[in-house]
Design goal:
Blueprint: E1 2-7, E2 14-20, E3 23-27, E4 34-40, E5 45-47, H1 61-68, H2 72-80, E6 86-89, E7 92-95, H3 97-105
Antiparallel strand pairs: 1-2, 2-3, 3-4, 4-5, 6-7
Length: 117
């Protein structure tokens, strides 16, 4: 078994993978499940199991803040409070786009306006 770093097909972020023969295994950063990708020699590609091909698009904290019109710190607090779902990758949090949009459409109390400049 050999350890390598690959780009996660779920998040587009680097993850540690384990190569055994022609197959690759890695931990799904969204669910924490072990995923095994089989190598298809005819197509010359690794194929992701069908149950993992649909995933939630992710945003950066910065893009979520821009979308919501709030500060980065506010997005981090919303994630911490469980009001916006996210995926942890290393030291960073990646908000789930669907959750950010749902929060934006929900009724919220008006807060302090953003500082200009």
């Amino acid at each position: 078994m050999k350890n390598i770093t690959i780009t996660s097909p779920m998040t587009g972020l680097p993850v540690e993978a384990y190569k055994e023969g022609l197959d690759l295994a890695f931990v799904n950063p969204i669910t924490g499940q072990l995923v095994t990708m089989r190598y298809d020699a005819q197509k010359n590609v690794y194929e992701l199991p069908a149950q993992f091909t649909a995933y939630e698009p992710l945003m950066t904290v910065e893009s979520a803040a821009d979308y919501l019109g709030v500060s980065r710190q506010r997005v981090c607090r919303l994630i911490k409070d469980g009001k916006i779902a996210s995926v942890r990758h290393g030291l960073t949090q990646r908000p789930i786009e669907k959750s950010v949009k749902a929060y934006a459409e929900s009724e919220r109390k008006a807060g302090r306006p953003l500082k200009e400049g």
